[in-house]
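Input record (one chain):
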Amino acid sequence: MMSVFVTVGTTSFDALICTCMETSFLKLLVTKGYEKLILQIGRGEYVPQRSPVEEIDVSFFRFKESLQDDMARANLIISHGGAGSIMESLELKKPLVVVINDQLMHNHQMELAKQLQDDNHLLFTTCSHLLNTVEHMDVSSLKPYTRGNPRVFGDYLDSVMGFR
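The corresponding structure, as predicted from the sequence alone:
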């Protein structure tokens, strides 16, 4: 059963959860072959009701000790722009759509998401463009993210400081 996992982390991002519960978005997921949508709604005020599209099962929860299992089971992850959620998704080698909260001032989330999109590791969008992004996404064009080796920088710094 193909599934989509949506996470807002520890924040409140009702706009993302509401967008994912719109009938047009749910119908799009069904046409893409998804049968299950799991929403991690965090501290949000909006609580999803029963799915208006019966071909897709929707469930939600606020918090869990770890989202690792939910992410690992998902065929697609839709995430807020938090660095922790982005990196955890990428390390699992899952297709990832990052939705930037454009209501935040001084939105630092966009910089990381844009760079990772430029490097073809993920797609990023806003709530108002999520439907279009998912409709036209080609996850086969995404490149797996490879974590850098922090030891390389440490070794370089040691040599510059004369420790080696």
